[in-house]
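To: structure desk
From: M.T.
Subject: fold request, one chain
Message: Could you run this one when you get a chance? Sequence is below, nothing fancy, just the single chain.
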Amino acid sequence: MKDLLHPISLVVAILGFLCLLRDIPARRRDPATTALASVFLLSGLSFLFSITPMWNYLDRVLGTVNLSVPLAQGCVIALIACQQVVLTHWGSPPNIARRRARAWLGAGLAVFAGLLVLFALLTPSAPRPIDFTLYYAHDNMYAAYLTLYVTAYTIGEVLLARGCWRLARRSKRTSVRVGLRVVALGAIVTFGYSGVRTGNVIAGAFGISLAGWENFAWTCGDVGAMLTLIGWLVPTITDQVKSVQYRFRQYLSYYRLRRLWLVFYSEAPEIRLPVDQGDPAQSRRFRSIGFKLYRRAVEIRDGRFVIRQYLEAGVRESSEAHHRARGLSGEELNAAVSADQILAGIAARKTGERPHPDRLTDFADTDPETSQPMDDIDALLAVARHLPRQRAHTSHSERVFA
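Reply: Done. Structure tokens follow.
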């Protein structure tokens, strides 16, 4: 059962670590992100060390039989401490979180040191990758080793379940609430593993074997661990999906604004912002879709400023009447009117006909309501939708990329 479930758990841990790996450079000052990435890495190592082929390989290479036991279980103790570090930083002020995180890491290191000492006192034997616990069940030193490990493991899982459930009730983000509750459920499932291992210690003292419960123990341990890892992944994957959607929206908006940009650029090519590409780091930033979209929006705003002095009130009045008759209202009406004003303003600029100061007006969508970063872009996109679909021709070379 162990060699069947551990590879599956290992894959889940690797996927989780890879998902978090891309966020570490951007969040290098966030201890919670580093600790959470460590949880996935340590979990993966614990499963890897326990798989029979790796167990036998380490025995040959390191020259010490069954060394996978303290290595795997040491990783488990370390990841339990890291999970508490994540919860501490998510739920406590920074100064308190740092102090508690150091305490948890120190406790984990002390338990790991104790496991190594007790393991070193065990009587050497042949490799036991399948039935290690059952083989040593009657060894008093192993009983002490297992008692220390199970006690630390159980305490960690109990505190994890309680801490996640409490923090989930306080969180305002749905993905965090769901993820923490899945983590809590996974921690509860692992109680089955803790129960069997505690039973191994007690049964060993009375000369009884719990061999029939081994599959149950490994099933609870692996399923609980997988649920825990999945729970930690829920808010991370949700954030990354939103990030991908946002970037896709930026690309789409950049493409859709091209028609509006060309209308202004064909008449006033000076709106194109000069960009210095001498610095490689700056060049990379200038190539990002976020900067290019921002630059396109600024250039469009500059184009609007260029033709503002050619906006005649009569054009706006007749356009409003026309689009109201079509059933438009609100922001959509303002966008349609602004599109007509842009075309009329450009035509007036070409002929040099400026309206009388008393007939000068402003764009209908001059003050759109914006509360989110993309709201201003959405206002420009609304105007672009009402422009003619034929491509604007220009004698100037369009330089889309900085």
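Reply (cont.): Confidence is low (pLDDT under 50) at residues 391-402. Let me know if you need anything else for the meeting.
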